[in-house]
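Our preliminary data section would be incomplete without showing what the modeling component actually yields. Below, a chain of 252 amino acids is followed by its predicted structure, encoded as tokens that our downstream tools consume directly.
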Amino acid sequence: MSAPTTRVPPIWPVAAPSFFGAGLTHAGLVRERNEDSILTDPSGALWAVADGMGGYGHGDVASDIVIDRLSQVADHALAGQALRARLTEANREILARVREPGMDQMGSTVVAALIQNSVATIAWAGDCRAYLMRHGTLRLLTRDHTVVQEMVEQGLLRDDDRDHHPESHVVTRAIGCEPDVEIDTTTVPLVPGDRMMLCSDGLTACLTEQDIAGHMRQATTPQVLCNALVVAALEAGAPDNVSVVSVFATGG
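Predicted structure:
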């Protein structure tokens, strides 16, 4: 009698997703200048939105510095460490620029995503946001650094009301406003079919998360999504600059 054998079913390799995206930024319908800056990456790895703080003056300079520093992150660097390091450098550079003649206080909020081995590391300071849509369900990946968000967490304000509160623009954290800046990070594995979106608060001040989810479900490409979201914000009045970066995961 032959010895029993165990048959192990083959494990078929699952193709890793590939990533492609687009970005769009607009001054809006009220601001004279666009103080937002965006970073898009043809290789699919590095994406960011920086929102210059117009109330401080020279917000466009601050957001440009943030994006310039982030663009120096190497694709294969330790993601969280590298993003924090570059944003810390941007913080120092903005503070140094403020001391130059003719410059006023300025700063920038930011959200950035570095995708490595199908995992996105998100880094942010302020109220720029990152969203993920998977199987038609929208998920907010970031937590606003704002007075209003603190009110929500203390039970003083409903979550649904935070984006329309009169103090929704008051941030508690930004690049270039204090000698030391704390950068939050989170990681999320990405699978084929996922759609990620980064945006400035100029978008979320105009559109609800239900509106955003509807556009993210319907869009056929990242560029179509960016166009649709910005147009929707403009139709809603766009009192602030509006910036969107979208990334789609395909394959598998």
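Residues 19-250 form a domain with the Phosphatase 2c; domain 1 fold (CATH 3.60.40.10). The chain has a mean pLDDT of 91. Preliminary results of this kind motivate Aim 1 of the renewal.
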